[in-house]
Amino acid sequence: MATVTQPDAALAHDTFPINGTDYIEFWVGNARQSAAYYQAAWGYDVLAYRGPETGVRDRASYLLQQGKVRFVLTSPLGPEGEIAAHIYKHGDGVRDLAFWVDDARDAYTKAIERGARSVHAPRVDTDEDGEVVIAAIATYGDTIHSIVERRNYKGLFLPGFRPHTSAVKSNPVGLKYVDHCVGNVELGKMNEWVGFYSRVLGFFNLLSFDDKQISTEYSALMSKVMSNGNGRIKFPINEPAAGKKKSQIDEYLDYYRGPGVQHIAVATDDIVKTVRALKSRGVEFLQVPQVYYDTVLQRVGKIDEEIGPLAELGILVDSDDEGYLLQIFTKPVQDRPTLFYEIIQRKGAKSFGAGNFKALFESIEREQALRGNL
Ligand code: FE2
């Protein structure tokens, strides 16, 4: 347990109320094939589509959903424009961590007043199902936060999207909701972005980790977790710290060509079942050495789960004052060593698994060394 600070939640003064994550949009080279991957391997339903057939000429988008997790995968249909430029520079990655709000105009105005950089002013999109008001502000790198108001909309997702019929039925793996989304920023920039979330959005610093806690022989990182008032939005922000060799954050920044979303943690109520299903469909996870399981229960205390299946699948355990959590991390899901996923099951704990960082980083470094980047 490596909790340095745990400030009072009363310190949060939300600039505007956020109901939760509305969607996460990825800009990818081939949205059709990415959708097939997320459907076949992760069990997402492909619910809706927007593209030339629905009157949008320059891009194709697929809406995927499992539980409350909603992904949009978008590809450009030509080399022009910002989507193609984003993919050329970053590879496949997260463009938008969208907030669901009740009043997008008010939220946007307040965010801009407090110093947010505008991506676009509130815009009203309509179709026969009503209207959605959507604005967007910039965050680290080329990542944005759309601000989505859908109280006057009864359609499936956003105007222009049409129901999509899949040739195959999806088989969900028990994913429930987005627990947190982690950003990697450059050395020396963590506090700047912590300041942004605090000043502009009124988030508070839930937890902090320094390089003494998150370090191995070779590399280190520092991290601060920013949260909105109701805790539905949690953004840890990482920056690299000096080590003997290149840190995993540096490797990310090199390959993503700048700051961006490092991982998305998705919650499940049964991590053993979820991970077993994902593995059987080819999703690859980081492995910790079996010796990790020799001492884990001494560290975290009693847990409900059998240790055997956890060890077999490589699921990690950590605890804090309020309970424990189970977690596991995938390998990067594209050829660039950039975005990956975390599967997390919380049993009371509100922390992020700092007690596992050392074992985990040693595992990441083995992969990094194989890529010649350590
Ligand atoms: Fe995480």
What attributes characterize this protein structure?
374 residues, alpha+beta, 2,3-Dihydroxybiphenyl 1,2-Dioxygenase, domain 1, 2 domains, 9-stranded mixed β-sheet, 8-stranded mixed β-sheet, globular, disordered N terminus, binds fe (ii) ion
Quick structural gist:
With 374 residues, the chain is an alpha+beta fold. It contains nine helices and 17 strands. 24% of the residues lie in helices and 34% in strands.
What does this structure look like?
The protein has about 375 residues and is an alpha+beta fold. The protein has two domains: about 140 residues, Roll (2,3-Dihydroxybiphenyl 1,2-Dioxygenase, domain 1); about 200 residues, 2,3-Dihydroxybiphenyl 1,2-Dioxygenase, domain 1 (Roll), CATH 3.10.180. Helix content is about 25%, strand content about 35%. The chain is built from nine helices and 17 strands. A nine-stranded mixed beta sheet has the order 6-7-8-5-1-4-3-2-9. It has an eight-stranded mixed beta sheet with strand order 11-12-13-10-14-17-16-15. A hairpin with an 8-residue loop joins strand 2 and strand 3. The radius of gyration is 20 Å and the shape is globular. The site of fe (ii) ion has 6 residues, from strand 10 and strand 14.
